[in-house]
Amino acid sequence: MSASPDPEKAPASLAWYVRLLLVVAGTGLLALLAMAVYLSPSKRGYGTHQQLGLPPCSFQQLFGVRCPSCGMTTAWSNTVRGRLIPAVRANSAGTVLCLAALVCMPVMLASGIRGRWVVRPPSERMLALAATFFVVITLVDWAIRLWWC
Hints:
mainly alpha; 6 helices; 0% strand
Protein backbone atom coordinates (compact mmCIF):
# COMPACT_ATOMS: atom_id res chain seq x y z
CA MET A 1 0.00 0.00 0.00
CA SER A 2 1.60 3.27 -1.08
CA ALA A 3 1.08 6.47 0.79
CA SER A 4 -0.65 9.12 -1.24
CA PRO A 5 0.71 12.65 -1.06
CA ASP A 6 -0.81 14.77 1.65
CA PRO A 7 -2.94 17.47 -0.05
CA GLU A 8 -2.31 19.74 2.93
CA LYS A 9 1.43 19.73 2.21
CA ALA A 10 1.26 19.91 -1.60
CA PRO A 11 2.07 23.38 -2.91
CA ALA A 12 -0.94 25.16 -4.30
CA SER A 13 -1.14 25.93 -7.99
CA LEU A 14 -0.88 29.60 -8.83
CA ALA A 15 -3.83 31.34 -10.45
CA TRP A 16 -3.35 32.14 -14.14
CA TYR A 17 -3.14 35.89 -13.46
CA VAL A 18 -0.44 35.39 -10.80
CA ARG A 19 1.52 33.22 -13.24
CA LEU A 20 1.15 35.89 -15.93
CA LEU A 21 2.25 38.63 -13.52
CA LEU A 22 5.30 36.61 -12.45
CA VAL A 23 6.33 35.95 -16.06
CA VAL A 24 5.82 39.61 -17.05
CA ALA A 25 7.72 40.89 -13.99
CA GLY A 26 10.50 38.34 -14.46
CA THR A 27 10.79 39.25 -18.14
CA GLY A 28 10.91 42.94 -17.20
CA LEU A 29 13.76 42.27 -14.77
CA LEU A 30 15.54 40.21 -17.43
CA ALA A 31 15.22 43.13 -19.87
CA LEU A 32 16.62 45.57 -17.28
CA LEU A 33 19.55 43.24 -16.53
CA ALA A 34 20.22 42.79 -20.26
CA MET A 35 20.22 46.58 -20.68
CA ALA A 36 22.69 46.89 -17.80
CA VAL A 37 24.98 44.42 -19.59
CA TYR A 38 24.63 46.38 -22.84
CA LEU A 39 25.50 49.77 -21.30
CA SER A 40 29.06 50.75 -20.38
CA PRO A 41 29.22 52.14 -16.83
CA SER A 42 30.16 55.82 -16.68
CA LYS A 43 33.48 56.50 -14.98
CA ARG A 44 31.86 59.54 -13.28
CA GLY A 45 29.57 57.23 -11.30
CA TYR A 46 26.39 58.59 -12.91
CA GLY A 47 25.10 59.46 -16.36
CA THR A 48 25.14 55.94 -17.84
CA HIS A 49 21.45 56.35 -18.75
CA GLN A 50 22.42 59.00 -21.30
CA GLN A 51 23.69 56.19 -23.59
CA LEU A 52 19.99 55.44 -24.12
CA GLY A 53 19.39 58.95 -25.46
CA LEU A 54 17.93 60.18 -22.18
CA PRO A 55 18.79 63.68 -20.95
CA PRO A 56 21.07 64.43 -18.00
CA CYS A 57 19.46 64.48 -14.56
CA SER A 58 17.11 67.48 -14.31
CA PHE A 59 17.41 67.52 -10.53
CA GLN A 60 21.17 67.90 -10.77
CA GLN A 61 20.88 70.62 -13.39
CA LEU A 62 18.31 72.56 -11.33
CA PHE A 63 19.80 72.17 -7.85
CA GLY A 64 23.46 71.34 -8.49
CA VAL A 65 23.36 68.08 -6.51
CA ARG A 66 22.70 64.50 -7.51
CA CYS A 67 19.18 63.18 -6.98
CA PRO A 68 18.47 60.00 -4.96
CA SER A 69 18.41 57.88 -8.12
CA CYS A 70 21.53 59.36 -9.72
CA GLY A 71 23.97 56.57 -10.39
CA MET A 72 21.44 53.72 -10.34
CA THR A 73 21.95 52.78 -13.99
CA THR A 74 25.71 52.98 -13.45
CA ALA A 75 25.36 50.81 -10.34
CA TRP A 76 23.40 48.18 -12.29
CA SER A 77 25.91 48.26 -15.12
CA ASN A 78 28.78 47.73 -12.69
CA THR A 79 26.93 45.09 -10.64
CA VAL A 80 26.19 42.83 -13.62
CA ARG A 81 29.93 42.94 -14.37
CA GLY A 82 30.79 41.93 -10.79
CA ARG A 83 32.29 45.34 -9.96
CA LEU A 84 30.57 45.82 -6.62
CA ILE A 85 32.78 48.55 -5.14
CA PRO A 86 32.28 50.96 -8.07
CA ALA A 87 28.60 49.97 -8.07
CA VAL A 88 28.16 50.88 -4.39
CA ARG A 89 30.05 54.14 -4.96
CA ALA A 90 27.70 55.00 -7.82
CA ASN A 91 24.53 54.21 -5.86
CA SER A 92 24.29 51.67 -3.05
CA ALA A 93 20.52 51.31 -3.39
CA GLY A 94 20.92 50.60 -7.10
CA THR A 95 23.45 47.91 -6.28
CA VAL A 96 21.09 46.26 -3.78
CA LEU A 97 18.20 46.51 -6.24
CA CYS A 98 20.26 44.90 -9.01
CA LEU A 99 21.37 42.07 -6.71
CA ALA A 100 17.72 41.52 -5.75
CA ALA A 101 16.77 41.47 -9.44
CA LEU A 102 19.46 38.87 -10.13
CA VAL A 103 17.91 36.63 -7.44
CA CYS A 104 14.22 37.37 -8.07
CA MET A 105 14.18 37.22 -11.88
CA PRO A 106 14.83 33.47 -12.25
CA VAL A 107 12.51 32.68 -9.32
CA MET A 108 9.70 34.72 -10.89
CA LEU A 109 10.15 33.19 -14.32
CA ALA A 110 10.44 29.62 -13.05
CA SER A 111 7.47 30.00 -10.70
CA GLY A 112 5.31 31.60 -13.38
CA ILE A 113 6.18 28.93 -15.95
CA ARG A 114 5.81 25.98 -13.53
CA GLY A 115 2.62 27.31 -11.99
CA ARG A 116 3.93 26.76 -8.46
CA TRP A 117 6.41 28.68 -6.33
CA VAL A 118 9.90 27.23 -6.69
CA VAL A 119 10.77 28.73 -3.29
CA ARG A 120 8.69 29.74 -0.32
CA PRO A 121 6.31 32.49 -1.51
CA PRO A 122 7.03 35.98 -0.18
CA SER A 123 4.81 37.13 2.66
CA GLU A 124 3.28 40.59 2.78
CA ARG A 125 5.53 41.36 5.73
CA MET A 126 8.66 40.34 3.82
CA LEU A 127 7.63 42.48 0.83
CA ALA A 128 6.94 45.46 3.10
CA LEU A 129 10.30 45.04 4.86
CA ALA A 130 12.11 44.79 1.52
CA ALA A 131 10.42 47.94 0.23
CA THR A 132 11.19 49.80 3.47
CA PHE A 133 14.82 48.65 3.36
CA PHE A 134 15.16 49.86 -0.22
CA VAL A 135 13.68 53.29 0.58
CA VAL A 136 15.89 53.66 3.68
CA ILE A 137 19.08 52.69 1.84
CA THR A 138 18.18 55.10 -0.99
CA LEU A 139 17.69 58.00 1.43
CA VAL A 140 20.80 57.16 3.50
CA ASP A 141 22.89 56.91 0.32
CA TRP A 142 21.54 60.26 -0.85
CA ALA A 143 22.17 61.90 2.54
CA ILE A 144 25.77 60.68 2.50
CA ARG A 145 26.28 62.03 -1.02
CA LEU A 146 24.78 65.39 -0.03
CA TRP A 147 26.96 65.55 3.09
CA TRP A 148 30.22 64.95 1.21
CA CYS A 149 29.44 66.99 -1.91
